[in-house]
Amino acid sequence: MKLRLCSLLLTVLIPSLIKAQNMQQLNAAEIKQGLEGLNVAGSVLYVAAHPDDENTRLLGYLAKEKRLEPVICR
Length: 74
Fold this sequence. Notes:
With 74 residues, the chain is an alpha+beta fold. Helices cover 46% and strands 16% of the residues. It is built from three helices and two strands; from the N terminus they run H-H-E-H-E. It has a two-stranded parallel ribbon.
């Protein structure tokens, strides 16, 4: 009897204690950008001796417009 009562309580209580993750609400622009990011055309290796040597405008252009994945080597 105690075993049945304990198992019944566990089957009722455990699902109420488990919480699923909240879905993040994305707007249309974020969804479009995420879908476009799936189409990676290739990758480009950018070699810089120092973080100040990075051309962030070039890296942004290659990533967003040309859909290339930049790999930075320092």
